[in-house]
Design a protein that fits this description.
234 residues; alpha/beta; eight-stranded parallel β-sheet; 9 helices; binds pyridoxal-5'-phosphate
């Protein structure tokens, strides 16, 4: 099998999983976007997936993301990693969607970068779902749920940004369903104040079914499409 055939086969499997999850939840298939997480994989894989019909791709490191986005315009690039404030202007210069907005200082830095680049960047507020994750060091990042309404108001007020919704990573090693339900509650609260902020980014290779059942509109899939990354865990 060529790499392109391999990708076509795994894409077929992932599409079937999403379709089954939508059917089981009584949701329309086109309510859920498949976002391919291509971090660590070569541009040729991104091109192959684009040729197979995918439109949205995600990266989590500034340099790699910048290189790929410049080499492959015409698709939508999402940034899904934690953004250091000093990288915000760079990320805002190429990303169409930043999924990891988790603090006021990052919102203002992204806004400045987007304005300077003459762009408008969609932002998703990353919500911390793990009560034990204090967001420092080894945590998976994200704003505490109680801080989300104020961050949403700030993001909605800033030039160059469009508040598009919320995002979360399920806590490691726990049943993801309660976490995804919690995210759905936070998303509903954001939507009450900002009706355009409809995106809920949740679900990865291992838990996309539970995420779709809880209302996810963007599933972020790496391993199930592209294979195991090395080194693992990135
Ligand atoms: C790497 C990554 C993914 C993809 O995870 P897989 O388990 O490989 O599907 C999804 N979301 C974020 C934020 C990631 O960093």
């Amino acid at each position: 099998m060529t790499r392109a055939e391999e990708l076509a086969a795994s894409l077929g499997e992932v599409q079937a999983r999403i379709a089954a999850a939508c059917a089981a939840a009584g949701r329309a298939r086109d309510d859920v976007l498949l976002l391919a997480v291509t971090k660590t994989w070569p541009l040729a894989d991104v091109q192959a997936l684009r040729d197979l019909g995918l439109t949205d791709f995600a990266e989590n490191r500034d340099q790699e993301a910048a290189d790929k986005a410049r080499a492959l315009p015409g698709v939508r690039w999402h940034f899904v990693g934690q953004v250091q404030t000093n990288k915000a202007a760079s990320v805002a210069s190429y990303a169409d969607v930043v999924q990891a907005l988790d603090r006021p200082s990052l919102a203002t830095a992204l806004s400045k970068g987007a304005v300077r680049a003459g762009r408008r960047v969609d932002v998703l507020l990353q919500v911390r779902l793990d009560a034990l994750d204090q967001g420092e060091g080894g945590g998976r990042g994200g704003a505490a749920p109680e801080d989300v309404p104020a961050l949403a108001a700030l993001a909605a007020s800033l030039d160059g940004l469009r508040l598009a919704g919320v995002m979360a990573v399920a806590p490691l090693g726990a049943d993801p369903a309660p976490a995804f339900d919690r995210l759905a509650e936070v998303a509903a609260r954001v939507r009450a104040d900002h009706p355009g902020a409809r995106a809920v980014s949740a679900g990865m290779s291992g838990d996309l079914e539970q995420a779709v059942a809880a209302g996810s509109t963007i599933v972020r899939v790496g391993t199930a499409l592209l294979g195991r990354r090395s080194p693992p865990g990135r």
